[in-house]
Amino acid sequence: MKAKTVFYCTECGNETAKWSGRCTACGAWNTIEEAPEVKVTKASVKGGTVRRSRPSLIADLSTEAEARFSTGLKELDRVLGGGAVRGSIVLVGGAPGIGKSTLLLQICGLIGQREKILYVTGEESQRQLKMRAMRLGVDAGEIYVLAETDLNQVISCIEDVKPTVVIIDSIQTMYDAEVASAPGSVTQVRECTMTLMRQAKADNFTAFVVGHINKEGNIAGPKVLEHMVDCILYFEGDRNTSYRILRSGKNRFGSTNEIGVFEMESNGLREVENPSEMLLDGRPENAPGTCVTCVMEGTRPVLAEIQALVSNTGYNAARRNTNGIDHNRAMMLLAVLEKRGGVPIGGYDSYINVVGGLTVDEPAADLATVLAVASSYYDKPLGTHVAAIGEVGLSGEIRSVMNLNQRLTETARLGFQSCVIPYRTGKEEPNAPAGLKLIRVRNVREAIMAVFDE
Ligand code: TYD
Ligand code: MG
Fold first, then answer.
1. Residue among 135, 167, 235, 264 to mutate when testing ligand 1 (max atoms within 8 A of CB)
2. Cα gap 95→220, rounded to integer Å
3. Residue-wise pLDDT tens digits, 314-365
4. Following DSSP, what letter does each residue of 43-103 receive, concatenated?
5. How many whole angstroms separate alpha carbon 310 and alpha carbon 352?
6. Which of 220, 323, 390, 420 could form an SS bridge with 214, CB 3.0 to 4.6 Å?
7. 367 within 8 A of 396, measured Cβ to Cβ
8. pTM for the whole structure
9. Is 267 touching ligand 1 by the criterion CB < 6 Å?
10. Residue 137: CB within 6 Å of ligand 1?
11. Is there an atom of ligand 1 within 6 Å of 98 CB?
């Protein structure tokens, strides 16, 4: 008898009885794949002994904080919400070659003395891994390496070694022999993650699982994967630069606002404690079309450079391009600048870019964006030591932002001499740090006049 097959959407994991070009659940095109049906029988449920669950009274539940440990990398600890949690499962996604394996192997080196680690690689041989470890200077401690793709072997190895940290590189290479479907398929990825998760909760180890990403930049595999794990980290960065940013897309044990910054060097990843310095590195002096602002990345103020280029259009309709900033927000700012700031940029092409691969999604960067565009239009530099912080409203007014003083301190620390800020600052009275002159403006027109002294 022919084995029964069903169809799955590789995007959302929705199961259907027949193939179609478009997933009826999530609307994605060309994502339906055929796979043998998985019948989960009593026997195939691991440890399928009869067991009774009991509820507890909420008053009796312990409020002890979850047990955490440091990964040895401050930047990673910060993104995880203050260290890794025992018994949790962390998914690490990122483009090929970005440094996922390097990051995880480096953690092994840092915590190998105090934790027992099992590094499972399905992508590299033990020899390849050893060569990389030597390059990173990871050679001591209780680090066990297993080159295996059969999940059941991995599980028995976990039971033998009893590690406190398990690294799976990567989930797409693992397969469960009981599931008749190819490694990397929706069913396999889902079942393997499920099994790992159950094991992690039962044995109280922390699992770091590498996940490949699809062309949209999300973790490849079923959407349910994202719901299952406790934390999802995305390792990002421009392949052409050595800077890498770690951000979290989901975190059951902390905020998702924090970022971690690293630099890839010849002997591994180095933590960057002062991202502002890195982001401002190599900034042109006295060039038109750039303005620095300070955005909050979680609890950390980070300086970002916004660049704009306004040029004569060669088309009937002006072209508008943005990178690192929300396109609609930028279009709104261009309109406000034209109508309220009196800068006639309507017939020009405008390009706006945030330097260093950073994504700015805070209204506090509005004023700097507007000033960068105006600076490019007038072809006049803003001055190397001028920064701007403020939200721009539709009537051209400059509105207050949160954490103003924290931002001003960071701006002053990096040697800026003046900063354009909102006239009204809400409850927070601005304290000018020593050496920083505050220029308080009410609206876009005032801001332009103040910096270009027309
Ligand atoms: P890798 O960790 O293998 O990426 P991933 O697992 O995300 O696919 O990183 C590979 C890249 O990093 C490769 O292009 C070489 C570079 N690299 C360094 O620059 N320095 C190093 O010390 C190491 C180990 C890798
Ligand atoms: Mg790798």
1. 264
2. 11
3. 778 889 999 999 999 999 999 999 999 999 998 899 999 998 778 898 999 9
4. TTSTT----------GGGS--PPPPEE--S-HHHHHHHTSSEETT-EEEEEE-TTSSHHHH
5. 9
6. 220
7. no
8. 0.77
9. yes
10. no
11. yes
